[in-house]
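Hey, resending since the last one bounced:
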Amino acid sequence: LHINGKVTTNTTNIATNTARIDNIPNPNILINGAFKINDYNVNLIESYSSGTVNYVTNRWATTSGGLSFNVASVLLDEDVPFDSNKTLNIQASLDCTGLSVFQIIEDADALYGGKTLTLSFWIKGLLDGVGKTVTARIGSGGGNTGETRVTLTDSWQYVTSTRTGSYFGSKSDGGVLISSYDISDFGAGFKIACVKLEVGDKATPFVNRTYTEELLLCQRYYQRWTGISHTDVPLGNFSVGTGDICPILYLPVPMRTSPSIKSTLTDVELYGCNTARTDCEAHEPTHLSIYSMRNNVVTLRCRSNGTFAVGSSGIFRIKFGQQYKFILDAELYS
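The structure tokens again:
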């Protein structure tokens, strides 16, 4: 096949398509950047001791300086000018000397150390926080190293910060930080939304994950099991030892590591029964811990204040009509 004639290049369309390619969103390294998932139930203002690390919503923690408290809330916000309707609000109370919010990334140095990363987010000053300085940083730093600074206003601002190099150090440096040590007035603070970290030297559009996808990502680190017992039956499967019953939880996703557990035991009963279940002895639970974890199966160990007969079977039971709560925590800064 022979083609005779002049071939011309449509440079206009190439330029247009290149611009479109540049706007293709990169994946977000951060989890819950739109604050959709809130298993910590921070819907109203809650206070936290200064100088301590406290998770205020899934994957996001806050800390403050001074001798007082800071407060945090996840709120529906009607004035956001972007593709989100929730913000994370951080405010000072009493004699606070600084506020910060951060997310630690699992295996940050192994996955992203030495690469060029870009952080982007929306931010707005709250009350006397307007006019104060906020610092955004990827990884370790201090003394202006790798930091981007912005002055808060009473309008939403879009902030980006790019950094190249090996900067992920200890666990506390393995993530992103948004902070202000310029805020000390009661009620002063800031709110953020649509937080994104991506590989590359430019910020691409923030894209919301589906609720289910975001929830499953969060549940690798924190799970909250709550509900009302509608039937007077065992919770999951079980095995029994002397004074112990081990119920099994089948998790929606495997957790990062064997979690710590917090629970409400006041509405739980332990029963040791004979094989025919015709003769049962009730005991009150005294301690609940993690016995083992394999993939998405967690075996709990519930110790009672009594002794079950050797060879008896056991029942771990939520009292009929009562509320129960299990919190499994495998966060990186727990």
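The helical segments are 11-22, 108-112, 211-218.

Sorry for the duplicate.
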